[in-house]
């Protein structure tokens, strides 16, 4: 397949001196996506296990909520930093180090005693996740140049698989071993298996592909991070981080503590968010096809409605599964993918790593406090009050701000 044929389908060709083919490249891409499945699974472990950790150590409800989402502080700190690291070191090396950090931190959480040690491990977990996520978003946007949002959607598709596997297996392993530490150790060790597989199979000509983005550097987008679209998208990402991770950090606890769901049942319900995320490729297609104003504003309005419905006590289990699935479609497949893609598109294509880094930093910087805030609001006025404030009202603000974006200043 020559360069013309590859360009026609929106994929950058490897340099001619390399012996790689498109089929080999896609195989390597799938291996990297598997590592993203693992990362997503690790994210979902602690929220399901949190009530047992709280019972053993006697943590307060707000502090337990902080532990469920503190990994996002590491993600926030590591995102933009990773964007700059990628200007000096290879994506493959950055990914491998990232997997080692978050897998090691996941396993170490199981042997750490006390709040501060656990907080440190869970925050460090997020730093490793930021290194992998930023590298994957930059690689997807660089290789699949015509369909950036759909390519990023394929990454988030694997987040959906990992989220369902992680939340479901966490409950299964917890019941099987009667110990909350077992899931953390199992998933942590598997990360080092992935490191060996990636090191042996992924080649530099694929992981470092940049030719298409350099060729398209003049197709639009700002020359630096200080521009109208990036600033607005940063605020929108903070809002979505607070909203989405308030839900992910608190909903399983709400189901168990208020409605008396078992850990397995609560994990199963929350897992429908991840099933919704499986529509991310289609969500990315919407982001490529329609105006950012329409996509983002519409998504924020939908989440505002869902935020009110989630913490009502009357819906049946089936209704809760449907609502959680709908949130996965809107909040993850459409809004998360859209924000990630528009951050990249707001800058020149040669700055894809910085764009993806800014997305990770802003979204997860806000998300770091999502679990704490929703727990604190629930302690003050109840879960319904917390959902209305943290999800509904915040997302209404987001819907209005999204209308101020300038799509004409984004790259193709």
Evaluate the radius of gyration: 20 Å
Uncertain regions: pLDDT < 50 for 5+ in a row?
A: 1-20, 211-218
Query: SS-based structural class?
Result: mainly alpha
Q: Largest sheet, described in full?
A: none
H/E order of the elements? HHHHHHHHHHHHHHHHHH
Percent of residues in beta strands?
Answer: under 5%
Distance between the termini: 24 Å
The chain-level mean pLDDT equals 85
Number of helix segments?
Answer: 18
Tally the beta strands.
0
Estimated helix fraction: over 70%
Blueprint (SSEs and pairs):
Elements: H1 3-8, H2 22-57, H3 61-69, H4 71-85, H5 91-109, H6 115-143, H7 148-177, H8 181-201, H9 204-207, H10 211-215, H11 228-257, H12 263-277, H13 280-289, H14 292-310, H15 317-345, H16 352-367, H17 370-381, H18 383-402
Helix pairs in contact: 2-3, 2-6, 2-7, 2-8, 2-11, 3-11, 3-17, 4-6, 4-16, 5-6, 5-8, 6-7, 6-16, 7-8, 7-12, 7-13, 7-15, 11-12, 11-15, 11-16, 11-17, 11-18, 12-15, 13-15, 14-15, 14-18, 15-16, 17-18
Describe this structure in words.
Helices cover 79% and strands 0% of the residues. It has helices at 3-8, 22-57, 61-69, 71-85, 91-109, 115-143, 148-177, 181-201, 204-207, 211-215, 228-257, 263-277, 280-289, 292-310, 317-345, 352-367, 370-381, 383-402. Helix 2 crosses helix 11 (228-257) and helix 7 (148-177) runs antiparallel to helix 13. The longest helix has 36 residues, at 22-57. It starts with a helix and ends in a 10-residue tail after the last helix. It is mainly alpha-helical and 412 residues long. The model is unreliable at 1-20 and 211-218 (pLDDT under 50). The protein has 18 helices and no strands.
């Amino acid at each position: 397949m020559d360069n013309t044929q590859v360009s026609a389908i929106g994929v950058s060709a490897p340099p001619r001196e390399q012996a790689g083919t498109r089929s080999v490249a896609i195989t390597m891409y799938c291996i990297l996506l598997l590592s993203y499945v693992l990362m997503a699974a690790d994210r979902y472990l602690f929220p399901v296990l949190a009530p047992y950790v709280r019972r053993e150590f006697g943590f307060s409800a707000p502090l337990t909520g902080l532990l469920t989402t503190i990994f996002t502080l590491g993600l926030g700190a590591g995102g933009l930093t990773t964007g700059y690291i990628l200007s000096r070191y290879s994506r493959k090396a950055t990914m491998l180090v990232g997997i080692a950090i978050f897998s090691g931190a996941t396993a170490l959480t199981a042997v750490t005693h006390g709040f501060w040690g656990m907080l440190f491990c869970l925050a460090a977990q997020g730093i490793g996740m930021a290194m992998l996520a930023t590298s994957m978003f930059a690689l997807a946007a660089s290789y699949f140049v015509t369909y950036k949002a759909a390519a990023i959607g394929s990454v988030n598709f694997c987040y959906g698989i990992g989220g369902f596997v992680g939340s479901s297996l966490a409950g299964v392993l917890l019941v099987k071993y009667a110990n909350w530490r077992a899931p953390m150790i199992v998933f942590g060790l598997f990360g080092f298996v992935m490191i060996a597989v990636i090191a042996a199979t992924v080649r530099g000509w694929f992981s470092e592909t940049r030719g298409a983005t350099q060729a398209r550097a003049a197709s639009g987008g700002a020359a630096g991070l200080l521009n109208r679209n990036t600033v607005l998208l940063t605020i929108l990402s903070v809002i979505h981080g607070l909203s989405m991770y308030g839900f992910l950090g608190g909903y399983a606890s709400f189901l168990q503590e208020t409605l008396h769901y078992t850990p397995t049942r609560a994990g199963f319900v929350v897992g429908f968010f991840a099933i919704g995320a499986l529509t991310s490729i289609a969500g990315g297609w919407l982001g490529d096809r329609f105006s950012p104003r329409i996509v983002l504003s519409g998504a924020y309005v939908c989440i505002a409605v869902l935020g009110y419905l989630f913490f009502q006590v009357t819906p049946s289990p089936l209704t809760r599964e449907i609502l959680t699935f709908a949130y996965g479609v809107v909040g993850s497949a459409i809004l998360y993918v859209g924000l990630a893609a528009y951050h990249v598109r707001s800058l020149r294509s040669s700055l894809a790593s910085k764009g993806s880094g800014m997305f990770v930093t802003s979204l997860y910087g806000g998300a770091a406090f999502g679990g704490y805030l929703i727990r604190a609001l629930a302690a003050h006025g109840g879960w319904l009050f917390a959902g209305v404030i943290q999800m509904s009202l915040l997302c209404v603000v987001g819907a209005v701000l999204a209308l101020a974006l300038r799509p004409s200043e984004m790259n193709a």
